Amino acid sequence: MENNTSYFYQFLEPISEDLSQIAKELEKSIYSSPQTMLMHTRTFVEAILQRVMIAEHLSGEDNFTLKDRIDLLERKGLLKKEVIDALHQVRMNGNSAAHETRNFRYSEALLSWEAIYMIVRWYVKKYCPQDVEVPAYQDPEPMKIDETEVFELEARLQNLEALIRSNIQQQKGLTEEFETATGSGTPEDALPGLASVRTIVYKDRSLEVPHFLRDAFLLPQRFEESERFLAMLGAEQEVRIMSELPNNLEGLHNEVKGFSEKNNEILFKELKHFINEEIARREVELALPGKLVLFYRSDYVIVTDQLANIPLSEEEFDSSPSLFQQLQEDQIERVGQLPKDLATLTKYDNVGFETVEELFGQLKRK
User: Fold this and answer.
1) Mean pLDDT (whole number) for 349-363
2) Rounded distance between C-alpha atoms, residue 160 and residue 185, angstroms
3) From the CB of residue 299, how many other CB atoms can be counted at a distance below 10 Å?
4) What's the pLDDT at 45?
5) What was the pLDDT predicted at 1?
6) pLDDT tens, 176-190?
7) In this structure, CATH architecture of domain 291-366
8) Are 34 and 168 in contact (CB under 8 A)?
9) Mean pLDDT score of the chain, rounded to an integer?
10) Among candidates 146, 114, 99, which has minimal Cα distance to 27?
């Protein structure tokens, strides 16, 4: 990565090389992949809040969500209203980008870019050396890069975030285990996000949740025996993402009607399978930097440039016309635009796992 290239947040370099480089990559992604920008902006501002908590000598658990950190700093009277609003905008836009399968607009990324500016300006003025000047806000210059470079940009952001997490952990003096895992080589050699951030228990059993799954969306269709249970929990706004699960699953069924303790036990079993499957997927992605990979259950297909450009149509695939029509309504017209987890396609009307499995098989054959 060339450091002599001018970019807006270059003034952060004396404060934090890690933050400045992530900001540089975010600027590149605004017009090339708004969804990538929105997802990683959430991690960027969380890293700033972690530094603030260290400076203020505030204790916070590793499994704190971004919302937890915002709420804590707000309770302590450390945030202005405009900063709180900016933080929540970044948080909600990032959550949407992580969980929704649609094309995100440049305007959404630009709103988060403005919100970042308000957050960074507050952080620099309050917690950084006084000789650091924050320039006036500027809209980013349009910068389009090709699809291959978008994948490389995503990989660089993941590596930078792994490095930033490692540096924060070292500042806090936490666990040698994590320092060994992330400090044994370059950030490219590490496995970003695999360090455990929380433990979920059920009776005498426990499972570890890795960092990269902290706010993972719990798609009910990924849990064959617990699909209805999770759907009902989500409908009641109780559990939609991993961080909303209680640390102890005993009694979770009491949040919705019609379920028993047995459902908690089954969900725990399926959560363990889900986490193992997601770790295996992450290892595949890290082993294939710059490659687009589509997953279905425990299998995957690497999308070549040729495959990425194949139209999603009845002429190319012997599959559900209804699925292709609904995809086109969401401006998903080519294989390369499909969501990474093909199980999410079951959200469309009259599309079941049989249809998705059939499409996946045809993708592999092609």
Assistant:
1) 90
2) 13
3) 12
4) 93
5) 37
6) 333 344 444 433 334
7) Orthogonal Bundle (1.10)
8) no
9) 82
10) 114
Beta bridge partners of 334: 311
For residue 146, CA distances in Å to 149, 281, 335 come to 5, 24, 16
Q: CA-to-CA distance for 288 and 285, rounded, in angstroms?
A: 5
The residues spanned by each domain of the chain are 8-183, 193-286, 291-366
**Could you tell me the two tokens for 62?**
């590793």
pLDDT, tens digit, 9 for 90 and up, residues 207-226: 999 888 887 888 888 888 99
Angle at 113 between CA 135 and CA 164, to 5 degrees: 85
User: Crossing angle, helix 106-127 and helix 34-55, to 10 degrees?
Assistant: 20
pLDDT for residue 89 is more than 90: yes
pLDDT in tens, 236-282: 766 778 888 999 999 999 999 999 999 999 999 999 999 999 888 88
Question: Which residues, in sequence order, are bridge partners of residue 225?
Answer: none
Q: What's CA 301's distance to the chain center, in Å?
A: 21
Among 31, 55, 167, 50, residue whose Cα is nearest residue 105: 31
SS3 letters across 190-206: CCCCCCEEEEEEECCEE
Q: Which of 247, 250, 252 is nearest to 230 (CA)?
A: 252
Tell me the pLDDT tens digit for each residue of 283-323.
887 777 767 889 988 899 998 888 988 999 888 888 778 88
As to burial, measured by CB atoms within 10 angstroms (0-12 exposed, 13-18 middle, 19+ buried), residue 189 is exposed
Q: Which of 98, 95, 91, 106 is nearest to 32 (CA)?
A: 106
Token digits of residue 21: 């480089």
Quickly count: other Cβ atoms within 10 Å of residue 347's Cβ: 14
